[in-house]
Amino acid sequence: MKYKLICIDMDGTLLNTDNQVSDDNIKALKKATEMGIHIAITTGRIYASAKYYSGIVGIDAPIITANGASIKDSGDGNVIYNNPIPSDILIGCAEILKKYNLKANFTTGDTIFTSYEIPETHSYKVTNKIVPNEFKVNFLVFDNINDGISKFEGKILKCFVGEDSNLDGFRNARAEITKTFGDFLHIVSSGVNNFEIMQKDSSKGNAAKRLAKRLGITKDEVICIGDSENDLSMIQFAGLGVAMGNAMDLLKSEADFITETNNNSGVARAIEKFCFA
Prior knowledge:
InterPro entries: Cof, HAD-like_sf, HAD-SF_hydro_IIB, HAD_sf. By secondary structure, the chain is of the alpha/beta class.
């Protein structure tokens, strides 16, 4: 068996546009697991949300969240790796974001806190209405965001900025944060009008590398599948980097193979081609 670990992004990859996992994807993942291949959900999402979808797929697999800032076992939630952002850097980032009138979400393993009320249409709030309590995401609002940063010191894994119509402010804020704190942070996008801030060395590629090493697997035995900029590092790391048919052009240009779209079970098609043939 050539491939022993498959790291799979969620949004735009494992999930279709209705935020569902297709039957074909579920069947392929279960069959791969039965063959002894390790599966790792690898997402920018919060752990509680990723764990819920891991349960839907029906596999007991490691979960990489916050774009690589955290790796946990799915079953017991045991922490394999955790890389929170220092509070002083977060406060500095928050000041820059305020300067450009941008909204930001700060996330821990099970909580999102902001300085504004998140709308009920937010994907986590929609999911909260249908999932058991253990998979619900906590939402908190602080008048002064620094109070939230202080409360969750040492636990904040990611700062998400966007989606925002203020594109000039968005670009300028990202540039200023990169110039000011770029030596300490890893900044990527998962869409055209957002960016995500993590601690240095927190990336999906580094997380895949750490997990492979823990499992005694070489990079040549790893498949990584994704669709956005935040998946680029793991596509570049993998022995086989797979871009979704709906992936951004940059990712497609770096991938070894382009599969079907997320609405056409592209994950299943790639696994069938390279693991079941």
